[in-house]
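FW: tagging you since you asked about this chain on Friday. Here's the raw sequence from the shared folder, copied in full. Didn't touch anything.
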Amino acid sequence: MYEKMKIEEGVSPVVGVMLMLVVTIIIAAVVSGFAGGLMGSNSQKAPMLSIDAKIKNTGIHTGSGFTATVTGVSEPIQTKNLKIVTSWSTTNKTESSYGNPVNGGGTVIGQEINYYQGPTSNVTILLPPYGFGAGVNSSSIFNPESNSEQAFGKYTLQQGTGLIAKPSGADYASLGYGYGVDNKPYEYTASGGVTGTTGITTVYSSASKTGKLDPMQAMLGEGWENLRSGDIVQISFIYVPTGKVILTKDFAVEE
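HL: got it, structure written out here
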């Protein structure tokens, strides 16, 4: 009887330890698989994107702006699922503050509802960069800011899709409104807060008058006119559903 009790007392702790180890291993495997599944899910949902872009500042509306071409995508990307963030750093070029450091940047969100209260009804800001070509239902390089199908958030990025944002005034220089007109390079000239008959505003606070922003200010933020040849602008594309940055690239400003 004594020998039997001795054997049972020796076996019971061993079995208990083994059971605890098995349970611990199972729990660890479940947690690891769950975490891995979440990571894998995000990785699968975030597409890949590559673009070739140029940023120019000639000091006037002609030739200045942001242009890009999609050179590759892992799958078509709806711009309503994208956010573009830009940032830059340079020195102030105005006479009153010449040489002082100035930082800037802009954010464009494809999912954002851009309604502002106008004089008689709500108006919609058609956000840049405007799309044309592949992935855009109806597009034209002339006055894209007036075509809702070309607004960022409405079209799809595919290989060959073009993107464009230019400072206002390019089509209405004769009116004397816009960027770099009236012999004032690297400056905005406005009348009543708007530039040209398109009603594109030079400042964010005036956008509610017409529902349109200056495309370059929307893309790069106010003060972008301080950028000169060789300055670096960082552009990031963020895939909103996963929050992942799918492209970050530095571009040197050209003249």
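FW: The helical segments are 2-45, 215-220.
HL: agreed, and Residues 2-45 form the longest helix (44 residues).
FW: great, closing this out.
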